Amino acid sequence: xxxxxxxxxxxxxxxxxxxxxxxxxxxxxxxxxxxxxxxxxxxxxxxxxxxxxxxxxxxxxxxxxxxxxxxxxxxxxxxxxxxxxxxxxxxxxxxxxxxxxxxxxxxxxxxxxxxxxxxxxxxxxxxxxxxxxxxxxxxxxxxxxxxxxxxxxxxxxxxxxxxxxxxxxxxxxxxxxxxxxxxxxxxxxxxxxxxxxxxxxxxxxxxxxxxxxxxxxxxxxxxxxxxxxxxxxxxxxxxxxxxxxxxxxxxxxxxxxxxxxxxxxxxxxxxxxxxxxxxxxxxxxxxxxxxxxxxxxxxxxxxxxxxxxxxxxxxxxxxxxxxxxxxxxxxxxxxxxxxxxxxxxxxxxxxxxxxxxxxxxxxxxxxxxxxxxxxxxxxxxxxxxxxxxxxxxxxxxxxxxxxxxxxxxxxxxxxxxxxxxxxxxxxxxxxxxxxxxxxxxxxxxxxxxxxxxxxxxxxxxxxxxxxxxxxxxxxxxxxxxxxxxxxxxxxxxxxxxxxxxxxxxxxxxxxxxxxxxxxxx
Length: 521
Description:
- The chain has 521 residues and is mainly alpha-helical.
- 62% of the residues lie in helices and 4% in strands.
- It starts with 5 loop residues before the first helix and ends with a helix.
- Residues 447-477, 479-484 and 517-521 have low confidence and may be disordered.
């Protein structure tokens, strides 16, 4: 039998891999739709006052699944009979389809032994395509029902949500790299991203922006929690009025939990200053609660502040953007001036300020995106606008984090660099230290002829060399030729200075008395 080549087996298994990626997209959509359908059916069965049939419950589940992707629903069973839009998306419900698409793409690209993985582009297209096939079928199913989807909202933002989640899955499967930009990007952008400094700034700015957004959300959730405790009695009355049985109360509680992230975004917008709209004629902010609000009866909306001018407790919510600016500055300085690094490794003032400004810009963009997702219409006329205004919220977040974050980053940098000494750099007026002159080695003591031979023999014995090797060089003179020529040259041919020195040496030698040998004894 002949063995199959690896390339041939890979080509034969490629269609199965592509079909598997398409199936992953279909399964991701089915899991999300099935989870919502099970929950709606449980609530429908447990509600004794439900006057609708199971088909209506299934239509409601399909509509809620489309709403989770950002689609705007059209409700036809209103009191006036006029269709009313429903565009407020529960953000906690929207997290489920995003996570399912992200995981489907990531699992499709995960390498496995004995299995061929598709290319990133193929995995993105097939998983997205399989998911959108189910979405299109659901949109056709709910067409004409009491909760139907607005056609344009299926393209934007629903399609964008699915494509963005799939792209994030591809990026995660690749290890979250910060790679080169697309080929159609400007040349300057390619050159900037080729430098390691740009990558370092981008990573630090992304982390600081994410930290700022998370602090805004956490601060907004804290504002909402304090408001719910402060207005506990109105909140409890609203909860009890909406339903009299336990099944209905459970449904209201579950809906309130799904809207908790929305409430956190609203609280962050309130602390930033622009606040949020309660209808077309009312705005709630820390400075004032103006207009006539069109507030439905709901527990989260019962915790609104009193109408009129703001009070010091309302103004205290400004601590939320201050904390976000501090988070942007801190996460910037963590990279700009490492805790255990040297002073010369720290970023410059300009680079630190620029990175903090980029983090503030990212924080403003994230706040604007969340504000746009957390609001929307709840009906017509007075309820056509509900929630924070996205561009005002984003601009306020940018101003707060930039005006406070950049100076705080510079101050934190100086604080972290205290006590660290930089190496001294030579300047123009600095006189270099003199180089020490090496001390010459002392001249060897003269050796007599009798001991010279013994020393040479001893050295030959130590070095392991033969005496015959030294005899080969016995014909060479011991004094150099130029010294011998100078000593043999007469005084008449020497220069005047050398001649005078020679005469003084001869006179001093003659002046020394020579004692006879018998005088020593």
